[in-house]
Amino acid sequence: MGYFLLNHFLLNQLSYDKFLTILRKDKNVIRVFFYSGVTPKREKKFIKMLGHLEVDIITKLLKVRLVKCDSCNKKTKTFIEKGIDASLSIDLLWYASQNGYDTAILVSGDADFIPAIKRSRLLGKRIEIWTFKHSIGKELKKEVDKVYHIDDIIDKIKKV
Fold it and tell me: What is the Cα–Cα distance from 16 to 74, expressed in whole angstroms?
């Protein structure tokens, strides 16, 4: 039994289809999740494409925040993500506790996932990470069973 949790940080110039094909090649991937913040109007085409790739999509509406420029005092709207990492962490732990996977593949370099990873491993689960070389710290590397670098396959997963 396998498992795959797909986080939300891959760049727009990469093909999710090609990336998933590579990950599924040598693994028994039983389920793929994509976690992302969305605006009400944006990302509809992208989310629809992920649905065609047999991906479970977990979204949260992005929050609007006013940001003031230090030099000109002009206020502009920006969008921020709230709750995405928490949702992924909860699902990682929930499915581990329900014996829903043997190995989780997390596409992220975010150290915020360390508590959920540690507890999942206490339940006997393996955790593998796919990330960019510059996006993962020593603390996260120590907590997982295997680290793969997207940089090593970047030419195979670029959009044409």
Answer: 37
pLDDT tens, residue by residue, 14-72: 788 888 888 888 788 888 888 777 766 656 666 776 667 777 777 777 777 888 888 88
49-58, 97-106, 110-119, 121-130: least confidently modelled range: 49-58
Q: Look at phi and psi of residue 43 and say left if phi exceeds 0, alpha if psi is from -120 to 50, else beta.
A: left
| Domains of the chain, residue spans | 4-81+91-157
Residue 19 is inside which H or E element, if any?
A: helix 16-25
148 - beta bridge partners? 130
Q: How far is CA 66 from CA 45, 60, 79, 125, in A?
A: 27, 19, 9, 41
How far, in Å, are 10, 73, 105, 106, 140 from residue 131 at the CA level? 9, 37, 10, 8, 11
Fold of 4-81+91-157: Rossmann fold (3.40.50)
Q: Between 146 and 4, name the one with better pLDDT.
A: 146
Q: How far apart are the first and last CA of the chain?
A: 33
